[in-house]
């Protein structure tokens, strides 16, 4: 059972979260430099339990686990549930000014199971959705944000927003979500279906010129930290990420779903998810996207490390997280936080307890006391293929040199004499 590492306060009647509450830090206005350490490894020897808490863009979270934008953050009831279960932060389902333009269809999900096509028993490894952003009226979503911030002033609530290519619309949306007291904004530049038809979501994330302009509008207006959520459906994800940061965003979140066609029924010959006999390409998530997400986060982390002052920016890893180990991998690449969406749809809100327990086990095994002790520790071990070849040739040369023993009798030394003899014995 996990023991959450944040301060216990007198139980009050607002929350049944076992009396845990975060220390409220000063509102993370954009001028506040976040307390951060660069990517480095520090193993500590103290006997205390690992501390799972993280500081991100000026706000503190009890653990790095964040509800990713989607069904698990779609209304007051489920977001409240996420806070009660102990999630580090909640990112609400993406909102826009006019929900009347958002019309969903059902069925809107289709799953991929390991094993033969159609096998109902295999483990679920892939998930496609053709769900749009929130179809609930903005006024209602805003009231719910306000209510949640009233009930949980110490918890981190992030609004996810998306608008059309229109400066005034973005400004109005930012103004309205900020008035609810949310802690930060995540900008959805990445939904791969439906919204691009209106020049929204992935249409912006794939077009660097448009993204730069829209980020300029957003960052001139927003007073809370802004994360830009990237689409993996692009050749080089570092290009839009770099522009988002250089135009003022405080963080990058990656990845949103990967454009996909989940499959075709071999009985009906119709594609899935099948709506009145037809389908449309959707967004792929769940375990199968995890390696792709790791590659994208690795590239972004390398870019951030070499081009930006890390202490001012944050990175949120997303994609296929169902275990503490999956999350650790993102953190080892440099992520400050890890988002989970499909995992919650499959396993429920209690998943956060398992994630925290497994993260803690990992930290205990390596004697890491804080997340900063290992954040980014694996990043230096990525290099180019040319460099791998060079390293391997060097290693082979050294192994051969060891086997060959001394090249000349002049190389015998007194101290290494026995080892030098051994190096020339054949059995
Ligand atoms: C059903 C569904 C709806 C989603 N809706 C949104 C959304 O409204 N806004 C957004 O930014 N991402 C949305 N996402 C993407 C997720 O937040 C996440 O980036 C992606 O699914 C990969 O993470 P996962 O494997 O943990 O689900 C949605 C994902 C799913 C599965």
From TrEMBL:
Domain of life the protein comes from: Eukaryota
EC number: 1.3.1.2
Alphabetical list of SUPFAM superfamilies matching this protein: FMN-linked oxidoreductases (SSF51395)
Keyword hit for Oxidoreductase: yes
Pathway noted in the entry: Amino-acid biosynthesis; beta-alanine biosynthesis
Annotated InterPro entries: Aldolase_TIM, Dihydroorotate_DH_cat
Keywords, in A-Z order: Oxidoreductase
Signal sequence extent: none
Pfam family, one: DHO_dh
Domain Dihydroorotate dehydrogenase catalytic, first and last residues per copy: 52-363
This protein's record includes keyword RNA-binding: no
Protein name listed in UniProt: dihydropyrimidine dehydrogenase (NADP(+))
Organism of origin: Hibiscus sabdariffa (roselle)
Top-level taxonomy: Eukaryota, Viridiplantae, Streptophyta, Embryophyta, Tracheophyta
